[in-house]
Amino acid sequence: MSKANGAAMPAVQTGGQQDQAIADPPAPAPGQFGKAPAAQAAQAQQPAPLTGIDYVISKVKRGDFLCAGAVTINVSDAADNPREFVIKSKSFEFRMVPVVTASGAVRLENEAKGVIWLQVANRAMLMNQKKGQRMAAECLAKT
């Protein structure tokens, strides 16, 4: 028997277990306490994070890069295709497409010519894989 307000109340038995009422509602989920419904709706409407090629495209640094040997390289969006880039200097121009890498580095390549552009943090380089040589190294974005 249990007592409520000083009066004895019988406990209800169901299938060998005692039923008990839950006095308090469950606690709110972490991060949800005190948020207004408008804030919750805005949080729910945020776009999904970019993945794959779209992520690579978003991370490509555009503009001029100053490389070792006083080589200047320009990286820009291709005028006719927003998913391609043009990398050019005084002596060359390559049309490049983004490639997903396991390391997270930005990689653009022109498979037909064997040329790749790699960007890692604040550095970049242009390589010719067919010839096994660097075309431009230690490239830093101009500020």
UniProtKB/TrEMBL annotation:
<feature type="region of interest" description="Disordered">
    <location>
        <begin position="1"/>
        <end position="47"/>
    </location>
</feature>
<feature type="compositionally biased region" description="Low complexity">
    <location>
        <begin position="16"/>
        <end position="47"/>
    </location>
</feature>
<protein>
    <submittedName>
        <fullName>Uncharacterized protein</fullName>
    </submittedName>
</protein>
